[in-house]
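INFO batch 0412 | record 1 of 1 | parsing
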Amino acid sequence: MAVGKPFLSQTVVKAINYHAIACLHPYAGEYRPCAVTVGDHDPPDHYRVNALMDDFVNEVNRYWNDWDEVSLAAYVLWRLNWIHPFINGNGRTARAACYFVLCVKLGGWLPGTIIRNCPGSCCENSLGFGTTLPTRRPCAPLWSPGFTAHDAPLADCDR
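INFO prediction complete | emitting tokens
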């Protein structure tokens, strides 16, 4: 990276969410504008999300060299789910961010085979995870060389 050390940012987390749910929700990649309830958990008020996410990425970056890979990745998974910063796709985003941190700390992809349930559809997110989602028709692949968030084919997606 240009800064000379790995780090997590709000931009990375928002991009993960965007690619995870771009075809499912019009607010993909944006923090939630309203209160939500998740089972028995009442996430923090929506007006606190930006500050909590600032604190979260600063904590992850502060402890990057002090915590082991699994502990830091587990913290990312737990804290993102606790803050619940997005209106949709928080679990997917937290799992992908957890995997991102784990891979970056380990210096590369984990060994194994990528499982793709529906290649080339909205189900395939930017990291190559295959998650079967209830889509009625596929939209253009969400990841390709040179892809930017503004290139997403939202007009072609069922909402």
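INFO post-check: The mean pLDDT is 78.
INFO record closed
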